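pls design
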């Protein structure tokens, strides 16, 4: 019974880590956590601002 519980916990942990890695590489904006704490960088807006100053 204990081994089954440990295997289950290990499987859940691996699935969680795999999901984090997948979301990190799949993320279109921001970071993989999805909590909104990370600011997104709008490269088009920055480029427009640089062109306006030039």
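designed seq:
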């Amino acid at each position: 019974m204990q081994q089954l519980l440990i295997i289950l916990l290990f499987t859940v942990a691996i699935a969680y880590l795999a999901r984090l890695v997948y979301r990190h590489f799949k993320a279109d904006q921001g970071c993989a956590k999805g909590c909104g704490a990370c600011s997104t960088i709008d490269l088009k807006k920055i480029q427009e601002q640089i062109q306006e100053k030039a």
